[in-house]
Amino acid sequence: MAEPLDARLADALDDARRTYAAFRPEVAAYLHERGYVPTAAALPPSDDREGLLTHLFRLHLETVGTRMFGVSTDAWRDNPAYPDRYFPTVWLDVVPKVLHRLPPERRLPTLAALFNLGENIGFAARAMGASVAAALAHDLDAIVEEGVEIVALGALADLGVVPREAAGSRRASTKTQVTRFAPLTSISTAEADPLFVPFALSMEGATCLVFDWTRPLALAYSLVGTAPQLIGRKSLPAPKVAARGLAIEAKTDAGMIAVGLDGVVTLTEGAGAGGMGERRRLGAIDPRGVVAIAASSSVLAVARRFSQRVELIAIGS
Fold it and tell me: What is residue 243's DSSP assignment?
C-alpha cells in the first residue's frame, strides 16, 4: 500500500496474506488506491463508519485472495475480452459512487448483497456476471431507490436467464441501456444423445430448438436459469437451410441478427431480411464452420459444422 494502514486494516491485510496462497500484493494495492480510498473519502461520519470500512476492506482482500479480483492496472477497462469483470466493476465503479448515498442501515446489507451476487453469478458464468455488473454501474440511482436485487434481476431478465415477471414491475427493462456481447455458456448435445450433431437452430422465447443433422429429431433446451436445461425431444425434421451467401440471419423482436462471412455480428433494427433499417455492429465471433444461428433479443445461439456444441452468447444494446 502506498500509505501506512491503521491497525485494523493492517491486521486484516496480514490475515489475508497468511490465508490466501494466491494473494497478490500489487492487486491489493491497486484495489486499495482505486476502490477503498475513494469509497472512504466519500463516506460521511457515522457511528459505524470505521466498522463498515473494515468490512469492505476484508471483502476486497477476499476477492483478491480468491482471484475474483485480479487486475493491477486500468488495462482491463479497454480489454472487453478480460473475463472477470464483476468485482472490478463493482469495487471500482459502483461502491465508491453509491455507498455514501445510502442510509447507514442499508450500507452493510448492500455490500453483502453485491459480494454474494458476485460469488454466485460470477462463478456460474463470468460473462453473465460482467453484464450484471455493467447494469449495476449504469443504474446507480435504482440501487439507491430500490436495491441491488431489483437491478440485478432486471439485468438477468434482459439476458433471458430469469422470466421477466421475476424482475418485478417497478423498473423498466435495461436492455436498451447496456451493451453486451459476451459468451455465456454452451449446449452439449452429446450429453443428451451421443449421436446428435446440430444442423439447424430455432429460438422460441426462452427455448432453443436444436435440430439433428441426419434424423428428424430436435432437442429443446430452456435458457431460463444459469445453465441450459434439456426439457424435451421432438420428432421434427430440420428446417431447410439456405445456401450461405453474405450472412446467416435470424429474426428477433429487436430486428435482424446476422453473422457475416468474417464473423462480424450485426443487428439491423426495425427491418426484415434484406431490410434497410439501421445496422449496428454487436461484436464478432470465430467465423469458421458456422452452419446456423438463432437469436432472441438477448441470446445468440451458434452451431458449427460437425460440432456437438451450440455456443450461447449474450447480446444486447
Answer: P
